Structure formats: structure tokens, C-alpha cells
Amino acid sequence: MSQIKPVEILKHVAKAVPTDCLENIVIIGSLAAAYAYFGDDDKIFVRTKDIDCLLKPFRVAAEKGQTITRQLLDAGWQPRRLGKHYNPGTHKTPDDELPAIRLYPPEIDPEEENAWFIELLTEPESSKNQGKKWTRMIIDEGHYGLPSYRYLSVTAFMPEKIDQLGIYYARPQMMALANMLEHSEIKPDRMSTLFDGRAIKRSNKDLGRILAIGYLEEEKGIRDFRQWAYDWKDALQSCFPDEWKTLSVNAGSGLRALLDSGEDMEEAHYTCVYGLLSSYGVSQGDLLEVGERILGDTVDILIKLES
What we know:
The radius of gyration is 19 Å and the shape is globular. Strands 5-6-7-4-2-11-10 form a seven-stranded mixed β-sheet. The longest helix has 23 residues, at 284-306. It has eleven helices and eleven strands. It folds into two domains: 3-155, Beta Polymerase, domain 2, CATH 3.30.460; 172-306, no CATH class. Helix 6 crosses helix 10 (262-273) and helix 6 (202-219) crosses helix 11 (284-306). A hairpin with a 2-residue loop joins strand 8 (132-139) and strand 9 (142-149). The N and C termini lie far apart (43 Å). By secondary structure, the protein is of the alpha+beta class.
């Protein structure tokens, strides 16, 4: 995992991509959460390697992705060559076998411990999309894919803008909601790459992110999560107008399952202390308390709001 300073990486990305594409990029994931809580503090490091750049709206995602990728490759950025699919595809390559756009900056050695790369994703084409979908993107080198997941649209809902950089980042409560919706249960699937030496269930890693965000919220002095419920309702009504009530009722089921499982909580805690909370001495008990507060202050109120 790379030790990076959030503000430095955001400046790097904002400077590297075409100016006319900045309005179409929302930074999500660890970097977005880190910037939201640490801002310009250059003494804070976050452990992450992938800088997730969500392209929106969907109708221009492939076009903007082509423009961004072309400029970065021409500037010497290097494709990440790891995993099952990384070579450019052709018109015969099935969508779900296309390589994603993952690029290292030219000054970084991919073999270095602190190497980081950007990855391009897109929000879903429709609220009816289920699971992971790929949008084909063609450049001179071949065919690539922009992955999307059903609930990524939530992360792009009313993002915050860094005015001096012209780039957007997802609000922490929206990333928390997207992870809750994506993991309504603890699935057995483990991450394809090791997390600081361990094979972790993806559900535990993503649900653990919710606890990390909640912990950082409390570090800011905010111990009341009730406003999240109203923010979540607005996002759900906008992104899933026909299903928002059902989604509201089921939103907390995965997080509850995590808190009730000592084994899964241990994995989630591990990802937090070696990831977003690497600068804090947070205990598993601390995260359990945060989780219970989120369920009580936010999920319970969200359920009441839908009735």
C-alpha cells in the first residue's frame, strides 16, 4: 500500500488531466475521504494505491475517458500490467474481458512501495443496472473498458468541489451509503490482491470503510449522524426514484451483520488501521461503537423517513 499525501495527489491529478474534463471527474474512495477530513494537512499520510476517478454523466463518459487517457499516455503515463486482463482488447473482446484504464504517473516506478495509479470508472447508465457493467472505450492502442457498479451513482450525488483545483470529490456520507447498499450481506468473495499481506473479504473492507468514515467524523467533533439520514434520503430519491423506499429499509443489514460477527469485524478493523485510519490508534471496540451509532442515528431514521 502506498503512503500518499491526499492534497499532493489531487493536485497532481488535476494538473495532469485535460482542463475541459475536470467538471466530469469525481474522485471517490480513500483519497476522497482522506481529503474530506484532512484537507491541506501535509503531515497526514493515507495508505492507498488506486486513485478512483468516476466519470459523469454516463452519456459522455467514454468520450471524456478517451480524451483523458490519450493525454496521459502522450505525457508518459504507464499502463498498470497486473491481473488477468491488462492487454488492450479488440472488437472481438467481450465487454467483461476488457482491461480497465489504470495508469501510473511517468515519474513513478510501478515496483516501488509507494507507487500509485489512477483508475477510470463511470457511473451507471441506468438506475436499473445490476452488478458490474463495462462501457467500451476505444483508443489507438485498442479497446478498454470503463467499469461501473450499480450504486456508484450515489457517490456522484452533489459532490464537493475543490475550487482551486477545479476537481470534485465524493462526500464521505455518500461513499458510506454506496458501500452499505452494495453490501447488504457479508459475501465470501475475497479481494484479488492482498491487503497488507492478508486476503480480506471485499464486503469487510468496504463496510469497514463506513466505520472509518464514521470514526473520522467523530474526530471532527461530530457525534450525531442524524443529518446523514436526510442526505441519504435525498440521494436515494434522486438516484433510485422507483426503489428508494426498499433500499432504505435494507440499507443497514450488511453493517449490522458485520458488527455482529467478531471474525468479520476483525478483518474490517485490520483494513481500517492499515488504510484510512493508519494515522490513528483506533481499536476494534472504537469502531463497534461508531457502527452502532451510525445504525441508530442514521439507518433507523432513514427507515422512518420512507414510511
